[in-house]
Amino acid sequence: MVSLVMNSAASAKSAAPSASQPVLRVNNLEVTYYTDLGRAKALDAVSFSLKAGQKLGMVGESGSGKSTLALAMMRMIKPPGRIEGGQVIVGDTDLMSLTDEGMRAARLDKIAYIPQGAMNSLNPVMRIGAQMIDAVRSHVRGERGSAIEDRCTAALRSVDLDPGVFRMYAHELSGGMKQRVCIAIGILLRPSVIIADEPTSALDVVTQRQVMETINRVQAEINAAVILIGHDMGLMAQAVDQVAVMYAGRLVEMSSVREMFTDPKHPYSQALISSLPNLDTKGVFRGIPGLAPSLLRLPSGCAFHPRCPHGHEELQRSVRPEPVTLPGGRMVACHLYNEDGHRHG
Amino acid sequence: MNIRIVARRLLFFVLVVWAASTIVFFIPRLSPRNAIRERFGELARTGGFSPADVEKLIASMQQQFGLDKPLLEQYWQYLGNILRMDFGYSLSRYPMTVTDVIAQSLPWTIGLLLVTTVISFVLGTILGAVAAWPKAPGWLRSTATPFILLTGVPPVIMGILLLFFIGFRLKWLPLGGAYSVGIVPTWSWSFFIDLMEHQILPALSLILGSVGGWVLSMRGMGITIQGEDYVNFAEHKGLTGRRIFRDYYLRNALLPQVTGLALALGTVVTSAVVVEGLFGLPGIGTALNLAIRANDFPVIYGIVLFITIAIALLMTLLEFVYPLLDPRIRAN
């Protein structure tokens, strides 16, 4: 029953890129919010790439730019925010160069977004089916009604929902079911990139697990690159293969999930990992000293230096660290590391 | 919708009608005034009847209207009459019945008041929805502004201004009446045009001041709905702006507007009295006005009761329409 989805839409997409070719490349993406209090740089030269089938976890404190990144990739930044520059290349299309109509067509088709507030993300006065059908109809022309309906019920089955949900209203579904419906809508057109913005917030832990398993399964099914946004490191550890850490609008470290949890490089990542509750050191919690900086008044140099145990040198305070690729392919933006992977001083 | 809910709504409707008729029955009987005595008292002063004859006349009239019987018996008979839509005879236009009076004037009021209420509702709702929609063209969004400025100008003032400038000074449209004096109402095109010309100013005086209210409430609701997650997700789904506007934004913002419409229908009659009087239209408002001046109690209470029943009926109908608009109401 899973194959239904695959057959019906496979023809619409060009041949899958080879495994080595990244399906998503984000280059120097910048977003600024022009507030009354001043300019807030919410995304600062964010670059990364993902291959088909890869799962990236995007973590960071509130206000670090995770959700802004998701919205910027969808080109859904609303005034007073503005995308100031950069590229988001899906396959071989730069989304930033598309017209508004071209971007509308690309949403859901090339890059899908699974919303944070799935509780209220479904229209209360339309049947679930109608909300799936209009999504398909906005992108695929000339598909027969019955074919669209088949596609929708197949998507519902892939997320473990009864096809009867098709005829129901949002208020008749539980929170987990609503979140699954949102996932089903996200995979309707088999996009090559799926962004899930805290898909499990406001769900209980059992449902969280089920939803994460659902995301994993549909991702394997359509071989999409998935970006999972959240701050639950425990959930991330089980769900993703790559972890990216954001701090004050910048990507400060990106590595495989194993390396991130066993050997974090950036002092902020180290603090983040060591703040996790641990069965061996139970009862002892270590937080990160200080507060997340305001984007309106970022510290000079490295934005993390006031909270960094190594941050008291002139270099940290005056020069912004650029991202470097360490041997083995990990990325880190910190003065402690140079291209060879050695620590300074 | 299950049968119990329907039954409950209908029972409620019957209760409202019963309560209204009971109040209408007892209020004049609590009053020390006696409509028949007052009327014949006037006749006696002008016509030179002997007081004894007048008393006899009054007694016979009292008997004819059943006012000599015990109160409770009158009440039961009255309720029976209501069920047959029999509100009794008009005093000032005897032998016309109250039902005749209402039937004669009702079409005019429905034609003017109902149509203008619906027009301002539709116009105000659309303008308000557009005014709150950021992607609508600027000129279209600002169309609502003049109506907002006119919000709350009472129909009387608006009517007087329109009459003075458009009717009296510019002489573009007639000053009053339902149709031109001397024309015989027929089913002809020329009569229809004449009729419409006479309805434009009253209609405008009702519409101009009330569109703004609908604009404001719809705009407020529209701004709230735009922040809803489902409107955002609709955009993430890559729907076209038109579809988001219609299915996700408008349909949800409309729900409170419809409740507002039900409430507004209740005030329709208030405007009718004033505007129909101002423009000399033969509607329910004018009939009520004349009845009040002539102390024609059966007509006054008949009209009041009729209006109450009509509004209760509209509300009940709306209760049945509302679940069609909002599936969440169907559930409970």
Automatic annotation (TrEMBL), chain B:
Question: Where is the major localization of this protein?
Answer: membrane
Claim: Transmembrane helix is one of the keywords in the record: yes
Alphabetic keyword roster: Cell membrane, Membrane, Transmembrane, Transmembrane helix, Transport
Q: Name one Pfam family in it.
A: BPD_transp_1_N
What Gene Ontology cellular component terms go with this record?
A: plasma membrane
- Gene3D superfamilies documented for this protein: MetI-like (1.10.3720.10)
Q: Do you know which CDD domains this protein is assigned to? A: TM_PBP2 (cd06261)
Which InterPro entries does the record match to this protein?
A: BPD_transp_1_N, MetI-like, MetI-like_sf
Transmembrane stretches, start-end: 6-27, 112-133, 145-165, 172-193, 199-216, 253-279, 299-325
Membrane topology, as annotated, equals: Multi-pass membrane protein
Q: Where in the cell is it found?
A: Cell membrane
Task: List GO BP terms, alphabetically.
Answer: transmembrane transport
Start and end residues of each ABC transmembrane type-1 domain: 106-322
Record PANTHER family: OLIGOPEPTIDE TRANSPORT SYSTEM PERMEASE PROTEIN (PTHR43376:SF1)
Instruction: State the family it belongs to.
Output: Belongs to the binding-protein-dependent transport system permease family.
Q: What is this protein called?
A: Oligopeptide ABC transporter permease
Query: Which organism is this protein's natural source?
Result: Devosia soli
Lineage of the species this protein comes from: Bacteria, Pseudomonadati, Pseudomonadota, Alphaproteobacteria, Hyphomicrobiales
